[in-house]
Design goal:
Oligomer: single chain
Structural class: alpha/beta
CATH architecture: Alpha-Beta Barrel
CATH topology: TIM Barrel
Shape: globular
Keywords: NADP, Oxidoreductase
Family: Belongs to the aldo/keto reductase family.
Bound molecules: NADP nicotinamide-adenine-dinucleotide phosphate
CATH class: Alpha Beta
Number of domains: 1
Helix content: 25-40%
Largest sheet: 8 strands, parallel
Protein name: Aldo/keto reductase
Number of helices: 10
Order of helices and strands: EEEHEHEHEHEHEHEHHEHH
Distance between the termini: 37 Å
GO molecular function: oxidoreductase activity, acting on the CH-OH group of donors, NAD or NADP as acceptor
Strand order of the largest sheet: 3-4-5-6-7-8-9-10
Amino acid sequence: MRNVEFHNGNTMPQIGLGVFRVEDGEECKNAVKHAIVSGYRSIDTAMIYKNEKSVGEGIKEGMKEAGIDRSDLFITSKLWFDDFGRGNVEKAYDTSLENLDLDYLDLYLVHWPGTDEELMIQTWQEMEHLYNNERVENIGVSNFTIQHLERLLQRTDVKPVINQVEYHPYLVQNDLKLFLESRKIIMESWSPLMNAKVLNDETINEIASETGKSPAQVVIRWNIENGLVTIPKSVTPERIEENIDVFDFSLSDAQVNRINLLNRNERNGSDPATFNGKK
Ligand SMILES: NC(=O)c1ccc[n+]([C@@H]2O[C@H](COP(=O)([O-])OP(=O)(O)OC[C@H]3O[C@@H](n4cnc5c(N)ncnc54)[C@H](OP(=O)(O)O)[C@@H]3O)[C@@H](O)[C@H]2O)c1
């Protein structure tokens, strides 16, 4: 597994397992366990996914079967809108730790910026407090646009290590990518497969034939070539294995560019400029 390095010197595996919409209970526990046994070292959950408890169980069973320690893993969870603001963040962090049955997270993210700048800044200051008190290894953001980041960087002290955003061949967000590169903030791709929608794309399938890999592997490798962290979700054992089996081939610059050019600025999820947690 390849790692990326954050501006603070810490590292993160470039591929992790995402568990959004994975049912709490056996399904989630088994997916996490299978991922760890298959070589995954990073798991991405969130309080709002309501499956932190089974993620924690999967981690325990996976660690035991794989013969690894907690320090070999990189666990991410996220802070939801209900817990924004002064006096709330540390409590929410403790609840996530309790659910996961862990002592610390490797990465805690503000899940969305929301539409209230003051609240977003206050929330980040609370995140800084957690980080400065060494309760969490790294803090980052999710779904932040350039405008949100500019305000955050101007008004607060600790720079996020990562910005987790929707990113797939139909939404490449090149301006945001360049902005993050210039600030040494890692870009992380959520819905890298656009919920399997890009797997039928003609160009992706052509490149899959050219490389002898599956369409999902081509898309995940394209994330790697572009320097992103990526967290494909699957509950299917064979797909979980397939999605990290991307280190025995590479894409040429021309193949990477062909995929970059598929961009349609098409979002599968909510728009970060307006989303405030309500449908
Ligand atoms: N920060 C945020 O706001 C945010 C928002 C959305 C998602 N995320 C994170 O990003 C993760 C991934 O995004 P996502 O869950 O939306 O979607 P995704 O990873 O783009 O796609 C998942 C879908 O693709 C299928 N799939 C996975 N591997 C496959 C393969 N090799 N071949 C064919 N189909 C395959 C899965 O099916 P099966 O499971 O049935 O195998 C599932 O239906 C989430 O789980 C979550 O951790 C974050």
